[in-house]
Each structure stands twice: as structure tokens, then as C-alpha cells.
């Protein structure tokens, strides 16, 4: 996984948009982002390692999300738009990339700039509840991603806005940033 500040220049969102400023592990830790690399081998041994993390962190449910034109059919364009719209969730966003790749962009709170996390096969991340983020494909146009959940699989996105600013999970996340500052 590579982490860097985005350049915010116009152009295809699937391009790297790399400003050349890398983001340190310390910054990612402060943002509350957990990350691992577990090589995605054909024998499926990766799943055993993912299961260890899932058990430790009580992730009881899972599904696979295939983000491709073929996988999503008529819903493809609408889903891509939805995923790339800045939002937060009331649960952690736990993702393991089985195949392909993509960008998880997260907001760095002190500057409100986008930090781009470029994930490829074998990368696993946990985004904390309440963090503003978005997801987009890279130029490979494909991601097969394992999604883990503490409870039943669900996907509820709260788009950034006045109302979401007072969401209790957002407030709790903002408070956690103050404590770690
Ligand atoms: C690659 S998983 C689909 C995108 C998603 O679940 C999400 O919440 C993006 O922020
Ligand atoms: Fe999300």
C-alpha cells in the first residue's frame, strides 16, 4: 500500500494524482487507520491469516464485493459514483483486496486534504467509524475485495454535510483525534 497526499488537479480520478508528498505511518496511525499486507496466494492461505485478524477483532461476517463492469452490470456507474462521494460509516470499514486494486481516499483532519491510499492485492485496511473517505478504482478497472463486518453485512453511507457533522460516530472520531494530537 502506498499513502500520499493527492494533488487535487482535475483529471481522471483513476489516475494516481500523486502530489509527491508521502504520508508517514505516524500520520496514518493518528488517523486511526490499521493496515496489513497478507499476500493473496492462489492456495488461499491468505484467508487463514485474515481469519486470525477477524477473530481477534470480532469480525463475524463477510462478503465479497466485485467492482467491475461485468460484476456490477447496470449498477456499475451508479455504484462507482456512490463509492467516490465523500462519506462516513457508523462501523469500521474493513477491506482485504483479493485481486485488482483501488484507492481509498481519507481526509487528513488538520488540513482537510485528501490522503490517497493505493491498495493492491494482499493489502488489508481498517478505516475507523466516523472518518470521511471515498473509494475509486485505479486504471486496472477491477477490485475483488473481501469486506468484513462485526454484525450483519450492511453498507450505510452518510455523506459529508451539516447533518453528518453531528452524527455521534463522527463526533466520537473527531474526539479521538484530539486525544491523539
Ligand atoms: C471496494 S469495497 C466497495 C466500496 C465501499 O464499500 C466503501 O465503503 C467505500 O468507501
Ligand atoms: Fe465507505
UniProtKB/TrEMBL annotation:
It comes from the Eukaryota. Fe(2+) binds at residues 87, 89, 93, 133. Transmembrane segments: none annotated. SUPFAM superfamilies: RmlC-like cupins. Its cofactor is Fe(2+); Ni(2+). Pathway: Amino-acid biosynthesis; L-methionine biosynthesis via salvage pathway; L-methionine from S-methyl-5-thio-alpha-D-ribose 1-phosphate: step 5/6. It catalyses: 1,2-dihydroxy-5-(methylsulfanyl)pent-1-en-3-one + O2 = 3-(methylsulfanyl)propanoate + CO + formate + 2 H(+); 1,2-dihydroxy-5-(methylsulfanyl)pent-1-en-3-one + O2 = 4-methylsulfanyl-2-oxobutanoate + formate + 2 H(+). This is Acireductone dioxygenase. It comes from Fibroporia radiculosa. The lineage of its organism: Eukaryota, Fungi, Dikarya, Basidiomycota, Agaricomycotina.
